[in-house]
Write a structure and sequence with these properties.
- This protein is an alpha/beta fold and 186 residues long.
- The protein has a domain of 129 residues: P-loop containing nucleotide triphosphate hydrolases (Rossmann fold), CATH 3.40.50.
- Helices cover 57% and strands 13% of the residues.
- It has 9 helices and 5 strands; from the N terminus they run βαβαααβαβαααβα.
- A 5-stranded parallel sheet has the order 2-3-1-4-5.
- Helix 1 packs across helix 9, helix 2 packs across helix 3 and helix 4 runs parallel beside helix 5.
- The chain is globular.
- The model has no long low-confidence stretch (mean pLDDT 97).
- It binds adenosine monophosphate.
Length: 186
């Protein structure tokens, strides 16, 4: 099972992806977390992306796509995975499709979590994970980047026919149940 969980910053992608991964016994792949780990470890990749992430901008498409390609080639990913934070541009979505096609694979479902802006901002400001990009100014930039560069990814998957829209308001468990209902049964 290959799942994409999609939505603006603060929609609850990370929290829900973790729960879905545990429930289905698949891997949770968060590109944002991979970058933060690389920054904390001081790797070449970490040095390359630190200032971009601190500012709330997007890492170049090719860098992200290469990282995802290398990661999913790992044996742990053969049973499936849930992608959180990728693809974040239409270019990434196209590159990912090509990459899956070469592997003879496809995405099973694209789950789009939505919530009103004021709730997203409130959640990001109060999540207290100490992220350098969770300040009021950087949140504003990230929401603008989302609307301009990331939201068009929804249309791409709507056309491809595996799109599901899920209400991202309410409790973590309510949202989780809605997501489970949106995942096709195998
Ligand atoms: P996230 O943890 O998904 O909120 O991602 C944190 C930050 O990592 C984003 O604001 C971007 O700077 C960077 N990032 C994560 N995933 C991607 C991606 N698919 N494309 C470009 N930048 C990304």
């Amino acid at each position: 099972m290959r799942i994409i969980i999609f939505g603006p910053p603060g929609a609850g992608k990370g929290t829900q992806a973790k729960k879905v991964a545990e429930h289905l016994g698949i891997v949770h792949l968060s590109t944002g977390k991979m970058f933060r780990d690389a920054i904390n470890e001081g790797t070449e990749l970490g040095k390359l992306v630190k200032s971009i992430i601190d500012e709330g901008h997007l890492v170049p498409d090719q860098t992200v796509v290469d990282m995802v390609e290398e990661t999913i080639a790992n044996e742990d990913y053969s049973k499936g995975y849930i992608l959180d934070g990728f693809p974040r541009t239409v270019e990434q979505a196209v590159a990912f499709d090509n990459l899956l096609e070469r592997r003879g694979e496809s995405v099973d479902v694209f789950i789009s979590l939505h919530a009103p802006d004021h709730e997203l901002i409130q959640r990001l400001l109060s999540r207290g994970e100490g992220r350098s990009d969770d300040t009021e100014e950087k949140i504003k930039t990230r929401l603008e980047v989302y609307k301009k560069e990331t939201a068009p990814v929804m249309e791409y998957y709507q056309q491809a026919g595996m799109f599901r829209s899920v209400d991202g308001t309410g409790t973590v468990d309510q949202i989780f149940q809605r997501i489970l209902s949106a995942i096709p049964k195998r």
